[in-house]
Amino acid sequence: MATVERQTPVQTGEPAPDFILPAVDREGFVSLDDYRGRSPLLLTLNRGLWCPFCRRHIARLGGVREKLRAFGVEVLAVVATNPERARLYLRFRPTSVPLGADPELITHRTYGLPQPALTPELIQAARSVRVNPAGDLPESVPVLEVNDVANRLDGFEFTDTDRSDMERQFVAGPQLIGQFLVDRDGIVRWTNIECAKEGLDGAGKYPTDEELVAAARALVG
Length: 221
Prior knowledge:
Blueprint: E1 20-22, E2 29-31, E3 41-45, H1 52-69, E4 74-79, H2 83-92, E5 99-101, H3 106-110, H4 120-128, E6 130-131, E7 141-142, H5 143-154, H6 160-171, E8 178-182, E9 188-193, H7 209-220
Parallel strand pairs: 3-4, 4-5
Antiparallel strand pairs: 1-2, 3-8, 6-7, 8-9
């Protein structure tokens, strides 16, 4: 699939861009066409496994999936690493959520997720703004340190793939993440983009179960 760069994220009311990605949890591929005409879809686009909050979100989606299925909504998570790395990780941290692998961030680009330039001003702000996005750190820490603190807390050991993913997704500019609720006709009906509402205070934040359920309820009426 060719990358189509967007300057802004896909908006509600717009068609969801098509994609085809290697499946992580099975052989073959995952695509938007798997769901079009069958069911609404919550599509959640994540960074690589180096990101502790993306790992937490993927794990939590197992429980959210069952809640959303009550409204006929399916869930697909995309993780920005290669399929082999994701499969190795899921051997020890299994999830019931279907996963697609997108190490080159093709889906992130086609859905217009921002990757702000790592300017001196952004770096300075990241040193001063303190966050605890999942509420499970001992205390709030500067944005620039939060991944290191959380990874140490998790005992997460980086592989060469994780380091390469992190450099591509953060060092040149932080890759932001997002969630898109797509109806059965392939139209985006709800979105949530990291930092769009709160600035750096929203770094690493994901929607709560309650927010996702409310969006699904509104979709099906």
